[in-house]
Amino acid sequence: MSQQALEGLRMQFEKEIGVFKQLEKDREKYIENRQKLEGQFTENTMVKQELDLLEEDSKVFKLIGAVLVKVDLTEARSQVEKRLEYIQGETKRVEDQMNDSNDKKKVMEQKLTRIQEDMQKILQSGKK
């Protein structure tokens, strides 16, 4: 009886380890996404600062593919503001995903610990 229970726990443990590893991969992906967003935010903040220094009659160009296209200064500022807002929203979403993943990971760690403890109890009871 205890051998069957031990085997069942071992199979459950291996399954849960797979879930745990996937949570780790997801966490790494979220960190990578957040870093990319932080870089984009910094870049767009610098663009905004430069646009804020310009006079209203300044000429502004936007690179689209291999072509520079003239853009109204007000429109350029508006686009950069919208981009910054979007990046902040995406950063919040990624951080929420990271927090959710961390919570799931903690629950999974507790589950794995309980399974290990149960396996040890079965092994110790078999030695007696």
Count of DSSP helices?
A: 2
Placed side by side, the strands forming the largest sheet appear as 1-2
SSE order, one letter for each helix or strand: HEEH
Rg over alpha carbons: 26 Å
Poorly predicted residue ranges = none
Give the overall form: rod-shaped
Give the beta-strand count.
Answer: 2
Overall pLDDT metric: 93
Instruction: Report the end-to-end length measured between terminal Cα atoms.
Output: 15 Å
Q: Helix fraction? A: over 70%
Biggest sheet statistics: 2 strands, antiparallel
| Category by helix and strand content | mainly alpha
Strand content: 5-15%
Report what the structure shows.
The chain is mainly alpha-helical and 128 residues long. Helices cover 84% and strands 8% of the residues. It is built from two helices and two strands. A two-stranded antiparallel ribbon has the order 1-2. A hairpin with a 2-residue loop joins strand 1 and strand 2 (67-71). The longest helix is centred in the C-terminal third of the chain and has 55 residues, at 73-127. The protein starts with a helix and ends with a helix. The model has no long low-confidence stretch (mean pLDDT 93). Pfam families: Prefoldin_2. Keywords: Chaperone, Coiled coil. Residues 91-125 form a coiled coil. Heterohexamer of two PFD-alpha type and four PFD-beta type subunits. Belongs to the prefoldin subunit beta family.
